[in-house]
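Lay summary

Proteins are chains of building blocks that fold into shapes. Our project writes down both the chain and a compact code for its shape. Here are two examples, one after the other.
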Amino acid sequence: MHEFTLVLPEATLAAMACIVLLVSVLRSSRSQAFTFGVAVVAVLLVLAGLAFTFPTNSEDAFNGTFRADAMGSALKIFLMGIVLCSFFYAREYFMHRERLMEDFLILALFAALGMMVLISAHSLLTIYLGLELLSLCLYAMVAMDRDSILASEAAIKYFVLGALASGMLLYGMSMLYGVTGSLDLGLIAKQTVEAEDHILFIFGLVFLLIGIAFKFGVAPFHMWVPDVYQGAPTPVTLFVGSAPKLAAFAMALRLLADTLNGLSDHWQQMVLLLAVTSMAIGNIVAIAQTNLKRMLAYSTVAHMGYLFLGILTASSLGYAASMFYVIVYALMSMGAFGAIIILATATNESDQLQDFAGLATRSPWMAFMMLILMFSLAGVPPFAGFWAKWFVLKEVVAAGYTWLAAIAVFFSLIGVYYYLRVVKLIYFDRAEVSTAIPDTTAGGRLVFSLNGLTILVLGLFPGSLMSMCLAVMLTHTG
């Protein structure tokens, strides 16, 4: 029974996702509000379960395939908070278009289940199980709008490249299993330390890192990111651009820091190359974009490069800085795409940069929230994005990579340009066609406002979140 207590949040989410599925099938299409309410209750129950079962020590369950620890539970709490907010944003979008949102709710809940399994995975088998459950749901979510050619193209591209990346990851896992004869991450870690120069370990590491890089969307494995972000319905883009990053971070930590720490000299060089390439390509190509969703896609590529800087330090403090970064980035990304949803109408996606021209005259409060989000994404103090980069760069310098920190600052300065361009459009340009802000529900306005203000508060008081990240990482790495 103790083992089932450890997986209580996952079991609750699986059961509630099935209930939401049944409710959406059995009730009429006009009862969307009830289905939405059940989905929100499902997330709240999972959050309560996570708080109830929050572990103080690491415990393994089901023959070591599942690990309950403080890092996993903390990431799951933030994950479910993001899923909850995404439901309110999605409700705004689908109400404007008078479309059903049950498919989104169901797929998002099952995707969240996959992410929770991935976060707590302690076996190559459970890592792959969680990853595939997440990926299959995301493929379907991207293709939800069957009337959109862009969405169909994005879904096909995402599916094909995702299948290729999954195959690479599985091939790397098979290498590790072939050498060690075990799927358990702990047993693999012991053998990795004993035979750190084994060529098959390094060969498997390369393929594992390809799979990890694809899930993060770092260059040169970022080909799917701009097309999926632009082509998918905006609530799906919001979901894909925020929640899965937390699960990808946990997967990277479980595989690189926990399992292959004995090969850190090898994977640090690979991660360094991925980080620099991502910062360069992401920031430079984003300048040329006129579509905000596509610009934010290349921005994501750059931000994941900064996140990788903390991982390559191979230290508890570096991992804590990356954890802080991924949480803050997920909140910033969610807010930026949330603004597009609130501006969208039944006929206009409002994802062009020009759609934000003159926003300050139409909605001063929304313009202020966008200013917070853009300044934070740019890394301007005193917003949360500044501290995310500061903590990462501090650990990079402490690890002896001063030259790398200088490169990161240089590309960050390039990135400031395209974020400030959005602020300039909002406050100093006039709209070509003056349109009023679409009517939004109280829930949508509240979530968007809380989203922006959270970024501001975390920027003014970053210590509390960073202390939590440090505490769980020091416990995790022991």
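And here is the second example, written the same way.
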Amino acid sequence: MRFLAAVLLSASALLGQGQDFNGDLLQAALRGRNDQVKAFLDDGADLEAVDRNGRTPLMLAAQHGQVATVELLLGRGANAAARDHEGATAYVLALFSPEGHGNHEAALKLLPRPPRPKMALDVKWSPIKLVSSCFVTREEVARVVDGLHLPEQFLRVFGAYVQASGRNLVELVGEPADADALLRVELEPASACVAQSGDNLSLSIEARVLREPGGETLFQKVFGSGLKGLHAQTANNLEQYGPIFEPWIKPHAGPIYWAAAGEVYRLTIAR
């Protein structure tokens, strides 16, 4: 207690000398050091000070799950609607970019939840990476893969994830005109004949979030073979294509959902 008192007295003395303690306030909020947060605010630190990312003390406290600090800052009048340089509020940071080992769920309950955004999906597949097969022509391989109905499988898995594990944060709608943003997904199964081995198969999925069809791309990323457990496999015949490709879709649903939902929340809050 003596050490803490000395720290607080030192802070007050420096503030009295004109020292800018906004940076110290931000660090104290991030670490959940409420006594320091109170002292800095009482001595004139800016409640809405921002770091180089445009994040306020409330944003940092929420992002790190510092529940008591979030409550303190809200009680002091912190602006929960403030956005950082990427358009994220304290709620969005705690939900989509949590850091540390704090209680993010409890922090979220203290913050105003924005309206649930609407997102439309456009899912297709491309034969561009079906280079060759040891068993049939490239055109026949494309027909075989088309018969697997990979886009329909993705839509089914993605919808199930939204309901079960995605906390139903976004509302999936059928028409882009009714949505706040469009998630465009392109599945790219790949095959290449490897002499004396069979067809080498892999799957990558490109996800893009657009403001509207043909509009600005807000997010773009390829999810694919770099993920653990999704490395290429060899098919010894065409019948193995389905059992190899189909299980690869499910592990992608979660990462694509969270990336897309975060962008849609940022977009709708910024409007």
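What can we say about the second shape? The domain at 118-270 is CATH 3.30.160.150 (Double Stranded RNA Binding Domain).
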